[in-house]
Amino acid sequence: MVEHGADIKSQLRFGASKSDQAIAQLLQYNCYSRYKEGVAFQRHSKDRETLFPIYMGLSVFAKTRKRSLVELMNEHGLSISYDRVLEISAQLGDATVSRYVEEGVVCPPVLRKGLFTTAVMDNIDHNPSATTATSSFHGTSISVIQHPTKENQGQERQKISFGPKKVRSVPELPDTYTNILPASFKTKNPLPPKCLIPKPHSDDFGTQIALEYQWLEKVMVTEEIDGAVNLTWSAHHASMKRSPEFEVSVTALLPLLRDQAHSIATVKHVMEKVHDVVANLNRGQVPVITADQPIYALAKQVQWQWPEQYGEDKYLVIFGGLNIEMAALKSLGTLLCNSGWTGALVEADVASSGTAESLLSAASVTKTRQMHQVTACSLYKLLKSAYNDSCADRADTTDDTLSFEEWCEIRKEQSPQFHFWHMVLSMELVIFMLIRSFRESNFALYCQALSELIPYFFANNNTHYALWLPIHLRDMLTLENTHPELAKEFQNGNFVVHKTNRDFSALALDQAHEQANAIIKGDGGAIGLTEDPSALRRWMVAGPEVSCLVSQYEMEAQTKEPSEHRSHHEQTSQAQKTFKRRVDKLSQTLKDLGNPFQEDSKDLYSLDTKDIAHPDSAELLQSHLQRGLFFC
Question: Where is this region: Disordered (predicted)?
């Protein structure tokens, strides 16, 4: 009536909208049987609380944890009070901890039974900048990720419920979860068990690298951008629709541990806790734990030191995919240092000087990845131009025409400058293959990309990754023999996380975990709570349950329309135009500086300054990648 008028016809015509329901609930919430005179603020009764003001209070609290915002909305009758929010969150936290004690395992209620389950562990560091801060936080965060399928959505566990009992704070977590027993290695640097390592099929690499060259060709020949063209790397591969069918993954954070992740004791403890969670949710499954390089190295040594309890037949520890990508981009940045690449980016006006320098260290993975995509297209454009010119010159003297591959091999022997930039392009394409394996949930491609990437780590002297990635690749290639059920799950794409239903948007397990860590350290996260154990415990234990309540209300009240869009976020006309403009500008700049693929001298020099490298560097370049292959 308030919105659509007093007549019956208009009310029947428009029905009850979301705003109608919200207004009706707010009217009930703000009606009082009697008003107290002289009181500036009327106290609301719990008996007249409706869902909408509870939703508003919990939603703002979950996103910002700002008392002032909740109280402001409460003063205007739009939300429950901040104290009431804390009371509800404390009741939820108390009920959740009671569930942990009852089940004998710290396992968030949002997780389901009967689903393939993986876990990620990482360090989480927070150094308060406030002048009043007296301590920092260096703890361990653990994510649990479940992979539902169309046929198996999992069995939801009993929902958390609580009575009218007043609870002021969230109780302590079980000692078995928070107390970490000391540990140390009996022998220094335990050795891995010996086994035969199969090689990935080389035919697969040729097929997969050809897909990257198809994209390069498409970018090179495209002159005009229309609505149907997908030029960016992500948009192009998303349009190919190679990803298998998938369901959105279920993710949950376990309560933070206050102990540092980079210790033998913490790694052992986390492995045990993950084992308990997996046994509770999906009995019989081998636990899968993802970690970055330092933690991965510790975890593997734990497996080799205590094979009876933590052996490779009882746990699968895998390398974080985002960690590998970052290391590869940094390794490529080391190769490009002093090459003139950053100067060319600045001169082409596709990056500022500060941004260009940060790309060498992959300070921003997304920006670095995108700039290498622009660089790869520009280099390929110049490479094909040089090949076409060579064919034209050769046609004047002979009828014999070299293929593109044969010509590249000959030119690599003749020109160090050609060899260097061809190697840069090749490494970029291998990195793109690695990233594509995550986006397309393609486990075979992942193994192939790893095997092609490892020689670059050896050649570029990235010691830790050159040492530990072969161990990880060994585990992946022998998975069908050691853990056939896990191999089947990985081959079905369950080695990545699907946070949305969009195409070509799957993430590596550790990347999804990093995003969860960012929420912890962001606005509304654990910032400001690390010095208050009680408040931190409330946020970690009750926070997910508050968010779950908010999501349930939004689903039931249909406050958010379900997204039907499956297209990738880069599949827009503006994104294609921007990418094409950057490629054109960079390729023209490289051409003006001197096409490196048309250089005939024996010198290796910087593109922008023309500084010539030491002759020994040019000589070593000829065997650079071969040395990496030798050590593999």
Answer: 556-579
Could you tell me if residue 207 is inside a domain? Answer: no
Question: Stretch 576-594: mean pLDDT, rounded?
Answer: 95
Structure-block tokens of residue 351: 């990056």
- If asked whether residues 308 and 338 sit together in one domain, one would say no
pTM for the predicted model, two decimal places:
0.88
Whether 257 and 160 map to the same domain: the answer is: yes
Predicted pLDDT at 567 = 83
| Judgement on whether residues 189 and 267 belong to the same structural domain of the protein | yes
Q: Same domain, yes or no, for 169 and 267?
A: yes
Kindly state whether residues 382 and 517 are assigned to the same domain.
no
Whether residues 389 and 522 share a domain: the answer is: no
Q: How far apart are CA 360 and CA 383, in angstroms?
A: 23
Q: Using alpha carbons, select from 365, 180, 190 the residue that is nearest to residue 261.
A: 180
Instruction: In whole angstroms, give the CA distance from residue 445 to residue 442.
Output: 5
Closest CA to 252 of 157, 151, 125, 179: 157
More confident residue, 26 or 496: 496
In a domain, 96, yes or no: no
Host domain of residue 604: 322-440+572-631
What pairs with residue 121 in β-bridges? 142
Contact assessment for residue 532 and residue 595, using Cβ atoms and an 8 Å cutoff = no
Phi, psi of 231 (to 5 degrees): -95, -40
Q: Are both 345 and 394 inside the same structural domain?
A: yes
Distances (CA, A) of 460 to 10, 285, 296, 356, 605: 73, 38, 21, 21, 19
256 in the same domain as 163: yes
629, two tokens: 């292959």
8 A C-beta contact, residue 316 and residue 303: no
3-state secondary structure 324-361: HHHHHHHHHHHHHCCCCHHHHHHHCCCCCHHHHHHHHC
- Residue 562, in any domain of the structure: no
Per-residue confidence band for 197, with pLDDT thresholds at 50, 70 and 90: low
Number of domains in the chain: 3
Look at residue 177 and tell me if it is in a domain.
Answer: yes
Compute CA distances 357 → 53, 157, 323, 330, 591, whole Å.
50, 50, 20, 12, 21
DSSP-assigned states of every residue in 39-99: -SSPPPPGGG--HHHHHHHHHHHHHH--HHHHHHHHHTTSS--HHHHHHHHHHHHHHHHHH
What's 596's DSSP letter?
G
| 597 and 418 Cβ atoms separated by less than 8 Å | yes
Gap between the Cα atoms of 226 and 240, Å rounded: 18
**pLDDT tens figures, 287-311:** 999 999 999 999 999 999 999 999 9
Three-state secondary structure string covering 112-178: CECCEEEEEEEEEEECCCCCCCCCCEEEEEEEEEEECCCCCCCECCCCCCCCCCCCCCCCCCCHHHH
**Each residue's pLDDT tens digit, 36-51:** 665 555 667 777 788 8
